[in-house]
Amino acid sequence: MPVLQDLLDALRARTIEVVDLTAPLHSGTPILQLPPPFANASPFELTEISRYDERGPAWYWNDIHTSEHTGTHFDVPVHWVTGKDGEDVAQVPAARLLAPAVVLDFAAESAKDPDFLLEVDHVRAWESEHGPLPDGGWLLYRTGWDARSEDAAAFLNADDTGPHTPGISVECAKWLAEEAPVMGLGVETVGTDAGGAHSFDPPFPCHSFLLGAGKYGLTQLQNLARLPATGAVVIAGPLPIVGGSGSPARVLALVES
Ligand SMILES: O=C(O)C(=O)c1ccccc1S
Ligand SMILES: [Mn+2]
């Protein structure tokens, strides 16, 4: 029996579940707020072209206006200066859009400290319990932040000192980029870097090291709580925007029931 038929049978029998890791995309979707003098992304907008009316009697359609980095989205190397000679989002090999994924759950730590940072030791301890990180796969970092995703203020969690959202330490970002076998980092927060990463050295180290190493980012993921620590397969579908630095993406996980 061909393996693909086995997959279809398992999906039909629901012995394999499809978990949607994507946040709904709408005008209220939180977007990263960079401080002046830096420019910022635009909120997502739908602009109606027609809706079964004189502009189009039988059809409803819209223009969309969005940043590449709005909502659940896929970061590619060219997004950062360290990866400027790397892939744009249209150049990501299709074979890499389906990959194994592991989940590192630090939701409890992030609930206690919104500036919590994942360190290499945390990953090493996870590996001693669950085995090595997947070669060519995703490290999905669960912080529980998806619960805030429909409240932009809570999700961005900024005060007069800037945003306070959990992330990855500089040392861990460098290690994930240069030592770990994963092809990318997925997070629940607005971007792959911690809210305080603007003050790190280098600033935004996940972007700087991971994209500089030709790796990828997935952001604003949801439902990581529904995935096992190991064994999920993630399908991430960015739009192949020619020359693009990233794209809103539909991200799904296949999980054995
Ligand atoms: O890639 C992103 O969505 C992101 O987080 C970002 C975008 C542009 C500048 C800084 C950052 S930190
Ligand atoms: Mn991004």
Q: What features would you highlight for this structure?
A:
257 residues; Glucose Oxidase, domain 1; binds manganese (II) ion; alpha/beta; single chain; Cyclase family protein; 6 helices; binds oxo(2-sulfanylphenyl)acetic acid; KFase/CYL; 14 strands; 7-stranded mixed beta barrel
Characterize the structure shown.
This protein is α/β, with parallel strands linked by helices and 257 residues long. It has a single domain (2-24, 67-256), classed as 3-Layer(bba) Sandwich (Glucose Oxidase, domain 1), CATH 3.50.30.50. 19% of the residues lie in helices and 29% in strands. Helix 5 (170-178) packs parallel to helix 6 (205-212). It starts with a helix and ends with a strand. The relative contact order is 0.22. The mean pLDDT is 97. Residues 69, 73, 75, 191, 219, 246 line the site of manganese (II) ion (MN).
